[in-house]
Amino acid sequence: MGDEDGISVQATATTFAVIEALRDRNHAGVTELASELDLSKSAVHNHLSTLVALGYVCRTSGSYQLTHEFLRLGLATRERNPIYDAAKSDLRTLAETTGEIVNLVVPEADHGVYLYRVGDGAHPIPEGGQVSLHASAAGKSILAFRDYDAVDAYVDTHGLPSLTERTVTDPATLRSQLRSIRDQRVSFDRGEQTPDWQCVASPIVVEDEPVAAISVSGPADRMRGKRLEEDVTGLVVSTAKAIELELLDSSTGEA
Amino acid sequence: MGDEDGISVQATATTFAVIEALRDRNHAGVTELASELDLSKSAVHNHLSTLVALGYVCRTSGSYQLTHEFLRLGLATRERNPIYDAAKSDLRTLAETTGEIVNLVVPEADHGVYLYRVGDGAHPIPEGGQVSLHASAAGKSILAFRDYDAVDAYVDTHGLPSLTERTVTDPATLRSQLRSIRDQRVSFDRGEQTPDWQCVASPIVVEDEPVAAISVSGPADRMRGKRLEEDVTGLVVSTAKAIELELLDSSTGEA
DNA sequence: AGCGGTGTTCACTGATGGAGAACAACAGTT
DNA sequence: AACTGTTGTTCTCCATCAGTGAACACCGCT
């Protein structure tokens, strides 16, 4: 039962608190974690030794760290989605041609996830990380292909929190952007999520459902003017279309 | 405290049983999991709703599945290891030149883990999966650079279980193989782990510690004779050496 | 050796996770 | 449109168990 936040198994919540703390600091000791998480040393010790027994944590040189069992879990969540296999090679060539970072974003419970990334250089959000649907090129191109009501519901529950001064915070403006994105199959992000970071994205739609979006992104000074608006844009849209077809082929061809 | 298997937090064990069941069947319902795991529906429900609240599971179309938070955790465990960045690009070119599957294997608590893989086609063990040190080319090349005592300890605790009829099960034979691997910096696997599957591997050693191994692997009919013994072998060894140097540069250069 | 700092163990107990049955919400069938 | 078999959800109650806090063991230091 517990409080009305849905967490009925407290122990599990603590376990994941430990896991996340371990992820954030790569490796840590019992006392360190105990003081960070406001738990007794023995509690932390119990959770850690359980995780060790299960194979999700291991001790190396006197310090605990997450094992690669999480890599196995994580890659499994990626590979169960057919879009991954369909998009992989196209994204690589897109990254080579543009020389920029290329992302594959999929929707998941009212946010987007960076499922796969190609290309060198830093990115404001790590691969596997989440992105809000209203404040990113990829997110908006997914939102654009959802029902009118679904967008309403999204705005109602989440609002349009501004992440930078350029984030779209007005519902009407968002609506009009979404309409044009739906027409053009392209969406842009000029610093709406991260200052000085720009994106071009195009959705992948199967049976009227937006199943993913691909995006090319880079620092503002490299993704400027004609290069952003035309050169890259064309490539992104055509690549998205190509992936869409590949996805259709693989689903019908193998049935 | 519970039995003497080290699991002191039962709830955490059940949670991960649920998680692993979800991974294995991609998505599932409450009753299905309950009967599979021999738990009451309410117990499973509690764990699932907790995981949902924590963001590690989500409901889609009436069925529960793992979210990509696990991808974030998993990729984090990969990226904390400097070998990953150092090896990535060299492995890609190696995969292109050979046309075969290329693996990066790192040691972790008495087994190896496929940390990264490049190349198309099926592989007996998934990326992120584990491999025993005595029955794989990569594993043996890691074992070869461990202390004499460490190898003893390994054999004592694990024995040399045979996975195929060609697995090395005799400690003396293993010793002699390890010696020559240490000299040549190459190890071979001709169906020792999976029937009709062959491998060439070379270790990456830093300060006398084997931190990883790279391997090229493929079905026996493609990795035969001179191609295996000479062409590929040379490339694997030189690539490993290159990665080793790159690793040294990055650690000294950035300090 | 002694000392600060670890990680580990121990017994106790109040909170809590789990069984089981009753309830609700569906989907498919006739 | 009612029915039926199934699934997910809620509920209550009790035994279990996770967590506290202190004592213990184990380092690496100087």
UniProtKB/TrEMBL annotation, chains A, B:
Gene3D superfamilies noted in UniProt: 3.30.450.40, Winged helix-like DNA-binding domain superfamily/Winged helix DNA-binding domain
Record keywords: DNA-binding, Transcription, Transcription regulation
GO molecular function: DNA binding; DNA-binding transcription factor activity
Keyword Transcription regulation among record annotations: yes
An example Gene Ontology biological process: negative regulation of DNA-templated transcription
Pfam families: HTH_IclR, IclR_C
SUPFAM superfamilies reported in the protein's UniProt record: GAF domain-like, Winged helix' DNA-binding domain
InterPro entries: ArsR-like_HTH, GAF-like_dom_sf, HTH_MetabolicPath_Reg, Tscrpt_reg_IclR_C, Tscrpt_reg_IclR_N, WH-like_DNA-bd_sf, WH_DNA-bd_sf
Domain IclR-ED: 69-249
Domain of life the protein comes from: Archaea
Sequence ranges assigned to domain HTH iclR-type in this UniProt record: 9-68
PROSITE patterns assigned to the protein according to its UniProt record, in alphabetical order: HTH_ICLR, ICLR_ED
Name by which UniProt lists this protein: IclR family transcriptional regulator
Organism from which the protein derives: Natronococcus pandeyae
